[in-house]
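In response to reviewer comment 3 from the previous cycle, which asked for concrete evidence that the modeling workflow produces usable outputs, we include below a single protein chain processed end to end. The sequence was submitted unchanged, and the resulting structure tokens are shown without manual editing.
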Amino acid sequence: MNFNLTEEQILLKKTAKDFAEVHLEPGVIQRDDKSITPINEIKEMGQLGFMGMMVPEKWNGSGMDTMSYVLAMEEICCVDASTGVIMSVNNSLVCQIFLD
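The workflow returned the following structure tokens.
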């Protein structure tokens, strides 16, 4: 089995990491303490394609594979696990309902 990342996956991982560090890390503890959902940041994640990663492009998704999804999730969750859960629920449950 080949575990080498593609150039696209490397770029995706960097994009997710950069986004998390710039947009999620500031205020993460305060948001968790006060149970605040980062709505604007979640909308930005949608614009980056992180909220429908495995949805086909013909349905306005990112059309990515499972490995790409895992790489992005890892970077988001390393900085803000709560937002990572929102991303996961949207990708794994909500989007999957429509794909089935």
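The chain has five helices and no strands. We consider this sufficient to address the reviewer's concern, and the full set will be provided in the supplementary archive.
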